[in-house]
Design a protein that fits this description.
This protein has helices at 131-144, 172-179, 190-201, 227-237, 252-269, 282-294; strands spanning 29-31, 58-59, 63-65, 72-79, 94-98, 101-103, 105-109, 111-112, 116-122, 150-156, 160-162, 209-215, 240-245, 273-274, 297-301, 312-319, 330-332, 336-338. By secondary structure, it is α/β, with parallel strands linked by helices. The protein has two domains: 11-16 and 113-294, Rossmann fold (3-Layer(aba) Sandwich), CATH 3.40.50; 69-110 and 297-338, no CATH class. The strands form five sheets. Strands 11-10-9-12-13-14 form a six-stranded mixed β-sheet, sandwiched between helices. Strand 12, helix 4 (227-237) and strand 13 form a beta-alpha-beta unit. The two termini are 24 Å apart.
Length: 346
């Protein structure tokens, strides 16, 4: 696909993008184990000095994954009014709606499942002085994540490159070397890098897919590949996008545009976008994001709308009767998915 090991998609030459559309609107989880094992201990970095450490979700031992094109799988994060994770909810605390019609939740878990993950890092000229600290933060993200994750690195400027000698690795040393293969120069082809990265995720064995993108400006080099292209591919693939925008040095109009784009990408997919005041804050943000990914609830349902029409279905999750001590809670998940089609069965 794309490597330095050089990219096959070169936005600066406006070559036609060839995407293999995602084979499934949703991937199902079937669990052989009867419940969540709460006894396993895991020490995760706290969100702040005031936050209470979470009880670790059970390591995903004994579950098996299988494809089921009818089952819609949602990964949901729940926070209290202070931004702390809420780990103690039960299935009865969630209501799931598809196009405003309530659905019956068939699978409910909070387990630390391994993910397929891409580190998509801006390598444009303006990132030259930031890359050392950004690289350290990206490695913190990996080190705080599940040790069985499948990880790859994409560095991008006006082209993008897969900077590994293999498709995925869990070896921090190899990831460090890939992140350090930088020659900061050129423009910012973020949309193209994200679309290419989601295409690469199709090679992964883990069903849960995540991209972390770190950039310091708006896209200016993706050519015909637009924000909407990236959003549509994320909707089809079910990829969660987490974003960090280092926009303080950007011109105001460009910074507003970049912030809007990153917020849209994260909001559509159930991820999150952060806009720190300095590059020094990125490391703690990356630890927080990794911790969130490891503590998400899994909600899955068979939709009542059986039409295989390929339409986009809006999804909404509500919380009901939460523990009184939790205060006002917020839930975050993807906004929807594409229904299967009769011709592809997907």
């Amino acid at each position: 696909m794309f490597t330095r090991r050089v990219a096959t998609i070169l936005p600066s030459k406006r070559l036609a993008l060839k995407l293999a559309l995602c084979a499934s609107a949703a991937l199902a989880l079937a669990f052989a184990d009867a419940g969540v094992r709460a006894s396993a201990a895991r020490q995760g970095p706290p969100q702040s000095s005031a936050s209470t450490p979470l009880p670790a979700p059970a390591p995903a031992q004994g579950y098996r994954l299988k494809k089921d094109v009818e089952l819609v799988v949602l990964y949901a994060s729940v926070f209290d009014e202070h931004g702390n994770f809420v780990p103690s909810l039960q299935q009865d605390n969630f209501r799931v709606f598809e196009d405003k019609v309530e659905q019956k939740v068939s699978v409910f878990r909070r387990e630390d499942v391994p993910v397929a993950m891409g580190l998509v890092i801006d390598n444009s000229g303006s990132m030259r002085d930031k890359r050392e600290k950004v690289n350290a933060a990206a490695l913190t993200f990996v080190e705080t994540s599940n040790p069985r994750d499948e990880v790859f690195v994409v560095n991008f400027n006006d082209q993008f490159f897969l900077d590994l000698d293999k498709d995925f690795t869990a070896d921090v040393r190899e990831l460090r070397e890939a992140l350090e293969r930088v020659d900061a120069r050129g423009g910012t082809a973020m949309y193209a890098a994200l679309v290419g990265s989601m295409d690469h995720l199709k090679k992964a064995t883990h069903d849960k897919k995540v991209l972390l993108v770190i950039t310091d400006g708006e896209d200016n080099a993706s050519g015909h590949i637009t924000l909407q292209t990236a959003v549509e591919e994320a909707r089809k693939s079910g990829t969660l996008i987490y974003a960090v925008g280092l926009l303080n040095e950007e011109e105001k109009r460009a910074a507003r545009h970049a912030k809007k784009d990153l917020t849209t990408l994260a909001g559509e997919t159930g991820g999150a976008a952060f806009f720190p005041n300095s590059v020094e804050e990125v490391q703690s943000i990356c630890a927080l994001m990794a911790r969130e990914i490891r503590n998400q609830y899994v909600l899955a349902y068979y939709p009542t709308n059986l039409a295989r029409d390929g339409t986009f279905r809006m999804v909404h999750v509500e919380l009901v009767n939460p523990p009184r001590a939790s205060g006002k809670l917020q839930v975050r998940t993807r906004l929807g998915y594409y229904a299967p089609t009769p011709t592809t069965g997907q």
